[in-house]
Write a structure and sequence with these properties.
By secondary structure, the protein is an alpha+beta fold. The protein contains three helices and five strands. The mean pLDDT is 93.
């Protein structure tokens, strides 16, 4: 599957989760349910993937964690906030660059309609082409 196809599956799964749970829960609840929904569809998903920074050829563990890495192609950052802030977009772009992935999704479950809580982002500086 391509990153675009995976993104479509993630968005569809997020809409199912949001329809079932609605807004008002913690991010971790949505993360767990979304991971379950994707896995039940046969889509590989990794949760809370540790993300080190490589500085001067040394691995520095600074506590970064990806919420979800789906099919080793798309990073998903889950939020439960009133609205996205610039720091949320910066966080996702940084993660995309650190793991050299092209596509990421910010998903905010604290919305009335899930379609209003989706932001797709693209890493323009990707090195590997994956």
């Amino acid at each position: 599957m391509t990153p675009n196809e995976i993104s479509g599956q993630i968005i569809d799964a997020a809409m199912h989760v949001h329809s079932a749970l609605g807004p008002g829960l913690l991010e971790s609840a949505y993360e767990g349910c979304l991971a379950f929904e994707l896995a039940s569809r046969g889509i590989p998903v990794q949760r809370q993937l540790e993300l080190p920074v490589i500085y001067r050829e040394h691995r520095i563990d600074v506590g970064f964690r990806l919420d979800l890495l789906v099919a080793d192609l798309v990073i998903v950052e889950i939020k439960a906030v009133d609205r996205f802030a610039p720091i949320h977009e910066a966080q996702l772009l940084t993660y995309l660059k650190l793991v050299d992935k092209r596509v990421g999704l910010l998903l905010n479950f604290h919305v009335l309609h899930m379609k209003d809580g989706i932001k797709r982002m693209v890493n323009q500086l990707q090195k590997s082409g994956s």
